[in-house]
From TrEMBL:
The keyword Ligase does not apply. GO terms for biological process: auxin-activated signaling pathway; endoplasmic reticulum to cytosol auxin transport. It is a multi-pass membrane protein. The lineage of its organism: Eukaryota, Viridiplantae, Streptophyta, Embryophyta, Tracheophyta. InterPro entries: Mem_transp_PIN-like, PILS1/3/4/5/7. Belongs to the auxin efflux carrier (TC 2.A.69.2) family. It comes from Ananas comosus (Pineapple). Pfam families: Mem_trans (PF03547). Involved in cellular auxin homeostasis by regulating auxin metabolism. Regulates intracellular auxin accumulation at the endoplasmic reticulum and thus auxin availability for nuclear auxin signaling. One of its GO terms (cellular component) is endoplasmic reticulum membrane. It comes from the Eukaryota. This is Protein PIN-LIKES 7-like. Keywords: Auxin signaling pathway, Membrane, Transmembrane, Transmembrane helix, Transport. The keyword Membrane applies. It is found in: Endoplasmic reticulum membrane.
Amino acid sequence: MGFFSLFLVASMPIVQVLLIGLLGAFLASGYSNILTVGARKDMNKVVFAVFTPSLMFANLAKTVTLQDAISWWFMPVNIGIIFLVGGLLGWVAVKILRPPQHLGGLVIASCSAGNLGNLLLIIVPAVCDEDGNPFGGERSICSARGLSYASFSMALGGFYIWTHTYSLMKRAGKLYHRNLLRNNLVQEIEHKDSFANGDSGKAENGEAAVDQEALIPTAEKPDDESQQNQLALPLLSSDSSFMGSKKNFWDKLKEGTHQIVEELLAPPTVSAIIGFIVGATPWLKSLFIGDAAPLRVIQDSVKLLGDGTIPCITLILGGNLTQGLRKSVIRPVEIAAIILVRYLILPVIGVAVVKAAYEIGFLPQDPLYRYVLMIQFTLPPAMNIGTMAQLYDVGQEECSVIFLWTYLVAGVALTAWSTVFMWILS
């Protein structure tokens, strides 16, 4: 397959994301004012609770069987390596570049969590449809096999994203709002103290007696409130890691277990688990999947809901971009670090990991499976990060700016690395 054909295949899904994002930006702008801040938040809740779980269940229940899951055992390991290495590199970038504290989780999430779902669902079958691809066989068989790999990747990626990345963004949101509240309290105290000091100055300069009498309750009230506010500040700080040192091991273990269970019960994760159970259990699968399935209407309805996930997420991101370009505090160097991790360091590591696993005998002979494993290292940040930023009201504008630049670069990076991967596998 020629370079230009590969360029078209790899760039089309990226162009689709950018076009829909531009539409979202227009709908959120002053010219249209349809996607207001409140509308985006409400739409995001629907995406989180309905659309994303539907997409996970529909694809996993239909395309993945128990035998497939067993034979593809290395894929969850591969994705785990991506999250581990990407997270470590993101952590190093945060330590070196020192972005605002509440954006550290966003940078780490952008480096570790790739778009393991919808882009693969578009790219992999499209590559199979091109003449001269190195994967052999008929186009329909190659596309069906590629769709199964991509769907399994989406389900596994969703599990990692809605546990590891979800936890990162949740902590970032709590930290951001706690610091915001603390700063507001400090500013309020300073304002009242300066007001009281100003009135005292008037009294000392020989102002009228009526001003001196008015000073007494004015000065006392801020002092009383400042004492209360200063008492509140340590209490506010005690919600964070300061209390952690006073907890015993069992309390920490109980709290950690509760947090993990809470994140596992997120709607997308629950739907992925149910979808896998249905797909891996033949008699359950026969109830939902197939032309003669008695509950086929449920699968069709769920799939219809799931098809709305990608457009809605992209519209929300485009809408947030209108604010992000004006309010974002993320620096170009931090965006460059994310691009460096996602499109240079991780793909090189991916080639080494997949080649080593194949030489050891961990992978099947199918070159398309190895291609999917390699391409997983090269994808732009997961769009679900934007969903989480909107849920916890942290870094929304910065997230949109990160997505703008990483998806612009993805068109070239995916094309170049796809060419390299196919050359290695041919």
